[in-house]
Structure formats: C-alpha cells, structure tokens
Amino acid sequence: MRVLYFHQHFSTPSGAGGTRSYEFARALIAGGHQVTIVCGVHSLSGVTLPFDARRNWWRGDVNGIDVIALPLLYSNRDSLWRRTWLFLRFAWRSTLLALKADYDLLLASSTPLTAGIPGIAMKLIGRGKIFVFEVRDLWPELPRALGMKNPLLLGGMSVLEWLSYHTSDGCIGLSPGIVEGIRRRAKRHHPVAHIPNGADLDVFRPGRRDLLDLEGVGPNDFVAAFTGAHGIANGLDAVLDAAVVLRTRGRSDIKLAFFGDGSMKDQLVERRRREGLDNCLFFPPVRKTLLAEITGRLDCGLMVLANVPAFYYGTSPNKFFDYLAAGLPVVNNYPGWLADLITRNGCGVAVAPNDPVAFAAALMTLADAPEQRRAMGVRARQLAEREFAREKLAAKFVEFLTRTYSTS
After folding, report:
1. Torsion sign (Cα): 330, 175, 283, 47
2. Which fold is adopted by the domain 209-387?
3. Residues 185 and 345 sit within 8 Å (Cβ to Cβ)
C-alpha cells in the first residue's frame, strides 16, 4: 500500500515537536508499505533535506520515509490571520499533489482542519483513492470555546469538518471526546478508531534525580515541569498563580520549570519578572531526545490547560504520555478523561480548575512525601506500558488503515 500522508507539523526525534506521524509512518514502512509525508517547515522539526529549486520544496529520505517539506514557515507565535493564510497555502499545494500523485491511500492529519482539503478534493473529483482523516482536535468547538467569534472562520471550519467526515472512508480520533464528536457528525456506521497519543517507552524513561542540571535548581529542590506550547489554550497563568501561593507559604524549595515556546511566553516571563516569582524557571524548546533525559530526572509533570469544557474529553496531549513513560506523578488542573486516568490509576493528583491553593497544596504534598511520589511514578510507568505503548498504538493504526483500504 502506498500512503500519501499530509501532516503540516511533522517532526522527528531530532526536533522538538510531537513525533506521532514520524513513528506511525515508520510502523507502516516496517509493515511493508510505502509512505510519503507532506509537511510544512518549522524551526523545531528536526528535518534537514536537500532543496529542489524546480519544485520549490525540500525533499529527501528520513529513515525510510519520503518527506516533502513545503517552504511555508510556521511559528506558534504567528497571528491568527498569518496562520490561517499558511494553512490555506499548505492545503492548496497539498491538493495539487493529491490530484496528481500516484498512491493508494491518502491520510490527512489535523491540526489544522484544512489538512483535510486534499482528501476532500480528491474524493469530489472521483480519483477512486481511499481517504482517512485523523482528528487531533474538534473544530470549530475548540476555537469557539477559546473566544473566536469570526463567523466566516467558524462557518468555514464547520463546512470543512462536515466534508472531511462525509468524504472520508474512515476517521481516527485521538481522545474519547473526539471520537464521540466524529460519530455524532459523520455518516451512520462510519469507521472510527480511537488511537490516542502514545508513550515512547524507549525514549522517555525514569532517570536519576541527582543528574538533573538546570539553572536555578538546587540539589534538594522539588522540580515540577511543564513541557509544551505556551499558548492561550494552555492556561499557564494557573501555574504562576500556584507559584504565588507557594511563595507565601515559604516553599522556595519547589521550582516550577517551563520548557517550550508560544504566543504567551513573553507575557508569562514578564509576569514572573514583575511579581518576582523566582520559583518559576523558563527554558527554550529542546529536541525530543534531550527533553527525554531532562524529563526522566524531574520530580513531577504538570498537565495544564485552560478551563474550557471542550478540552475535558477532546484533547490528547503528547506531554502527558511523556510524563507517564518517564515515571513521573502528574498534577492535572482540569477535569476529563486524563484526570480520570490519573485518579483511577493513582499516578498523580487531579485538582479543580482555577484553584491555585489546591494546585499549590498538591505540589507541597508531593514534595513532602517522596515515597508516595515514587509509588505514583511507578504506577505512571506501568500505565504507560499497559495502555499507551507507542508500538501497540502504531500496530492498531496500521491495522485500521489496511482494513479501511481493503474493505472500501
């Protein structure tokens, strides 16, 4: 089976982004399939390829994957309109490829939602290829919940969502809420698989705390970290609110580390400076392999999002599964399926949203109970191995694609 795989934000383990599409493409190749990934360019992808001036793209082999990188530079610091323009340009060039290239199955992975346009166009002109749509976020529910009011954008998203579901031969959802949302809007009996983000058990592992070397961290400090995008949706002011409480309680031994970048990072750093929150430490994004080393040496992982009900069952953040694989207890500040997993498996603490006192209390409890913390970390790793091992999820992914191809 020849797979044409569209994912604008493709990244490898040498980069600093999520590697789901890389790992799943490698699983397809291991199963005897051919994969071409079409992506955009971003500084954290870890992809270095020769430039083809005639085609106006970068193209080459990445560990057996044929990768085409279009010259559309993306940053999560870009304005809404610039990102929208980049998404549409990527969709246009991808559609031209989808209408001309030789392949058996087209796989489009959002975000953005415009990733589905090549598959929609291919189906509408009747090329007779198979189209599978992977849904990483529910649109337009999340943008609307985050305050987007532009009727043209929201209406366009609704149309694209409907067309993606109704022209595709199958869909993959990354969380229970996403799967439920697809089933509500798609055709009856439409094939839908729940395949969440996974834990890279050979990359993220429990490590030695005494080897942690971060500026501003002492050998006896308790370090809780957030590793991911610093955007509006992440609601990271909640962590700084907890930092204020920790300072008033005299807990200078608890450090809160942030790894990543995003549109809100400058404001968060400025708030730290303005309020003198020396217990908050900000670091740039780091490649996945180095992040894995750092994560394994931490004391706690922070799973933080803005208090938006659409997030409760509608997201599947990479960082959560990284924390589990690294054997870290997780402090989570919003309800939903991840909070349920944490509580049911005893691998961290779920606190109510918008409650900095409870957030700080959870961190103090973990800092003061090393044996309980270690036991939670062991259960976190066991949960990752039992339910979220990347190899198991990749096998499910490959099986769903091959079954959809053979039965459609």
Report:
1. positive
2. Rossmann fold (3.40.50)
3. no
